[in-house]
Backbone:
């Protein structure tokens, strides 16, 4: 440590963002004697949702050294192989965004071109048929991917559904065990340096004053430091992402076996999620209040539960967008205080992870070099925009004519880069490699079918490609048949987990 090293970090907020940040920073820095304090208020509480993740969460848990079986037991987690989109693109549509590849690329040409050619030549098989993750998800099957890269059973990825409150509690225990200090209280005032406007200390309602070198704002939508004190500008994206409200309600598990995927069902002015956990199912309806009243939205949600509601519905109001500067002076916003993109692709917790990772990459000293925070902001912005455009695409690419909401989404103008990417995909089937591996699956699932396939595959006969696709599908079917049901697999893990094992 040199004289300019950061010695005290104050994290304000103890939701998923606060405790993920505390755990990750403590893991990295506490061996070198840094003070990390987290302030949270039980009276204010947390947003209490955020239960569906993408595979990157596993990397975060691994970084912390958390045993997966123990995590599953503690957070009532289940496995997730993708997201099933129903009625998106068109009423009656049903496709999966799978965690894992589609078929295999041959001779450098992506699989979807082979599928496309077969469609043009009369085949009717959905793209899902060629994805291990999608087929296993539909069959309700799960096992850990094989470590043998030659096996089809290695050809998928997975994430978790978990209880958000239990995850935050779990991380709190983890962080406190490695010396993060938690203080209960409400931030009542902030003291700024009169020369540079940096935060010097916060004062709690109890009268305690906490000084620090670096402040992390994890106060959720309130953004009490980054917004209320430092006035970091918020960029509003709600003209593209029109849903601005949500209702969430847990319900009892249905009789059915566990489904290892998140269900996202499009409704008349938004969509409904279904997230199965071990002990309950999380449900929510994300909707646009310009098109649907709260009462109508609640009625749709409650009508479509597959078990008894277990609590009163909880309402949320939000605005899609992000702060231009998630890092402003000596304050970094992580979590909802920095921005929000609706949960359609389960990316908020992932964005928390990205924020933490980039903070570690660009960890400052007390000089707070401007170029350092500028690069952090640039990289985080890039990630937000990439996800924003991916989500907008789900709304834009639709052929629904049954409701004003969907027709307005279809007719809206979208960011230029997205418009260009979509035109390129439609006219050539080309997927920009900066995009997600599953981009083609989601575009095609939404109904955006390329006009042409890559002419290079004309070297193969129809018969040869048809036989090849049939073989892939047959092999996937056989592999899925050999897998256990996700429910049985979880039960086995829980039975084998020593729940008394220390962290
Ligand atoms: C409807 C909905 C569904 C979602 N679904 C998903 C999903 O499926 N997957 C996903 O990845 N994400 C999802 N998210 C996002 C996810 O919930 C959040 O990213 C995550 O919970 C992190 O929230 P947070 O910690 O930033 O904020 P919060 O949970 O709101 O925590 C804020 C903390 O700050 C504290 N605080 C606030 N003000 C003060 C003050 N003055 N003094 C002291 N403490 C204070 C509070 O007490 C609390 O501890 C969803 C969000 C919404 C709204």
Residues:
């Amino acid at each position: 440590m040199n004289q300019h090293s950061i010695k005290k970090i104050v994290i304000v907020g103890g939701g998923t963002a606060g405790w993920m940040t505390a755990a990750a920073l403590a893991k990295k820095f506490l061996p070198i004697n840094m003070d990390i304090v987290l302030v949270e208020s039980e009276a204010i509480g947390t947003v209490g949702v955020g239960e569906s993740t993408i595979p990157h969460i596993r990397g975060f848990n691994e970084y912390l050294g958390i045993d997966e079986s123990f995590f599953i037991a503690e957070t009532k987690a289940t496995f997730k192989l993708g997201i099933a989109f129903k009625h998106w693109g068109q009423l009656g549509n049903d496709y999966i965004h799978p965690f894992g590849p589609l078929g295999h690329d041959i001779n450098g040409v992506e699989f979807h071109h082979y599928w496309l050619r077969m469609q043009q030549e009369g085949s009717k098989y959905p793209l899902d048929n060629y994805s291990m993750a999608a087929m296993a998800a539909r069959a309700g099957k799960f096992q850990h991917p094989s470590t043998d890269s030659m096996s089809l059973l290695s050809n998928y990825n997975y994430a978790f559904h978990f209880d958000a409150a239990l995850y935050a509690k779990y991380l709190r225990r983890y962080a406190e065990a490695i010396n993060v200090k938690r203080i209960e209280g409400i931030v009542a005032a902030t003291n700024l340096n009169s020369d540079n406007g940096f935060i010097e200390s916060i004062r709690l309602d109890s009268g305690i004053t906490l000084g620090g070198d670096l402040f992390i704002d994890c106060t959720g939508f309130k953004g009490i430091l980054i917004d209320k004190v430092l006035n970091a500008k918020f960029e509003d994206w709600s003209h593209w992402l029109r849903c601005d409200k949500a209702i969430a309600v847990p319900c009892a598990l249905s009789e059915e076996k566990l489904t290892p995927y998140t269900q996202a069902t499009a409704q008349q002015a938004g969509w409904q999620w279904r997230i199965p956990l071990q002990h309950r199912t999380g449900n929510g309806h994300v909707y646009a209040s310009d098109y649907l009243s709260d009462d109508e939205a609640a009625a749709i949600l409650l009508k479509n539960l597959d078990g008894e509601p277990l609590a009163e519905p909880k309402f949320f109001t939000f605005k899609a967008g992000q702060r231009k500067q998630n890092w402003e002076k000596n304050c970094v916003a992580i979590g909802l205080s920095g921005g929000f993109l609706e949960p359609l692709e389960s990316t908020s917790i992932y964005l928390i992870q990205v924020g933490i990772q980039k903070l570690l990459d660009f960890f400052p000293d007390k000089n707070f070099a401007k170029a350092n925070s500028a690069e952090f902001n640039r990289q985080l912005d890039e990630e937000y925009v990439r996800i924003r455009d991916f989500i907008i695409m789900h709304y834009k690419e639709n052929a629904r004519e049954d409701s004003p909401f969907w027709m307005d989404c279809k007719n809206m103008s979208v960011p230029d880069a997205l418009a260009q990417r979509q035109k390129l995909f439609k006219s050539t089937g080309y997927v920009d490699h900066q995009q997600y591996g599953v981009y083609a699956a989601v575009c095609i699932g939404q109904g955006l079918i390329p006009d042409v396939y890559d002419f290079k595959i004309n070297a193969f006969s129809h018969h040869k490609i048809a036989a090849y696709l049939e073989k892939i599908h047959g092999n996937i079917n056989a592999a899925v048949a050999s897998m256990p049901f996700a429910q049985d697999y979880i039960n086995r893990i829980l039975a084998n987990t020593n729940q008394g094992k220390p962290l």
Summary: Residues 120 and 452 are 9 Å apart (CA to CA).
